[in-house]
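Quick question, first post here. What does this chain look like in 3D?
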Amino acid sequence: MVLVFEDGFDIGALLTSNGIDMSELELVQRWDTTDFLDHIRDFSPEVLLLDHFIPPTKGLEVLQQLNIAVAAGEITRPRIIVGMSSASMANERMVQFGADHGVIKFDLPKLPIWSNN
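> Answer (accepted):
Ran it through. Tokens below.
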């Protein structure tokens, strides 16, 4: 299960159009971050993709609040968390706060995680 918080681009289409086989993956995209912890808890994703600049709660804040909830035992951390933005500095911040990868959004299909799922 892949859970995506991205408000500007269809991530499933981005991955598919770049040759990623999605037949074995369930991808759910949320176009805003309303009730983000509930969605993460309900879906229990293996992979969590976070847009840095998504409203109403930016991806970095989602990650920070997720970290707190995981530390408190309220939620299980996704196996892989990816910060994705068009700004490399934003991606670096996501990695500093615990994302496993930070990537320019359009380079997402190049991550090796797609061959491991």
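The chain is about 30% helix and 20% strand.
The first strand starts at residue 2 and ends at 5.
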